Amino acid sequence: MENEKVKVGVIGVGALGRHHARLYAQSPNAEVVGIFDVQKETADKVGAEFGLKVFEKWEELAEQCDALSVAVPATYHARTTIPLLEMGKHVLVEKPIAASVTEAEMMVEAAKKNNVVFGVGHVERFNPAMDFLEKYHAATRFIEAHRLAQYPPPRPGLPRRGTEVSVVLDLMIHDIDLVLTMVKADVERIDVVGIPVLSGTEDIVNARIKFVNGSCASLTASRVSQDPLRRFRVFQDDCYISMDYGKHFGMVLKRNRLGLARKDVDLDDKNALAAELEDFMAAVKKTRETGVVAQPKVPGEQGLRALRMAVAIEREARRYNEQYGFKFAPCTPDEIK
Hints:
Elements: E1 6-11, H1 17-26, E2 30-36, H2 40-50, H3 58-63, E3 67-70, H4 77-86, E4 90-94, H5 101-113, E5 118-121, H6 128-135, E6 140-148, H7 167-182, E7 187-195, E8 204-211, E9 216-222, E10 229-236, E11 239-244, E12 249-256, E13 259-266, H8 272-290, H9 300-323
Parallel strand pairs: 1-2, 1-3, 3-4, 4-5, 6-9
Antiparallel strand pairs: 6-10, 7-8, 8-9, 10-11, 11-12, 12-13
């Protein structure tokens, strides 16, 4: 049984789900049963590209699978995932875990009730940079993260990718999860500024998070930037760590008896999404072998933890705008070039 492949399927094979399907097809630990997407043309294209069976109904796909990846828009996460969990299927859902805390709580509860593996796709936790940062989290004093992207292109019949939620749930939630993983303390307060520019929700946000242990984090996320940027910097008692995901380069400056010693970190050591899928399948295999649910690296509870903070940041941004009477008029779709 240890060497048996996990029968997997993918629901939602758009921009990200397509890569789930591709990497499962390449994995020696997976037997890809097939894929499903409400956009039949998209599913047919991905199925032809990777030689995968396309299912007309998600229920028929799920019945034949041990485990499934769910990569549909965030507003559909709960209504897609909960029925799968209730069928006794193991599920990896893309981030954010859900569009609301209530939905996320229902998903976590459904996984517990049905004794199945439930993971959330916070893929940055599998980045080689995070492998390094987790080892040196104890003395963290200040974290600065920038995650900037261009406005996503239009999609026929669907909102632009990610814009069904604010940039906090779309992009910043990656860094929220990393910060909460590194700083083992309760949050004391948050200060937030956020502005909707092109969509109906916040497109650019800065959040400053103060923890009760004195640590602090400043997070900036934008999906209306000209130049993409993904940078994560950590200031510690005796060390400075800088990770630039765009340049695939990291650097550590650490104090020693002679002054400062520098160490370079290669961020291209592994495919983070492939590592995430392998971690999920390993948890499914262990659960199947032992009869006890094995937790993936990012279980549903941690996805819920990140979502709660993200929602609090959204709420504070809107309270701030209301307090100062700031009003914004996002562009209509016809105005966006």
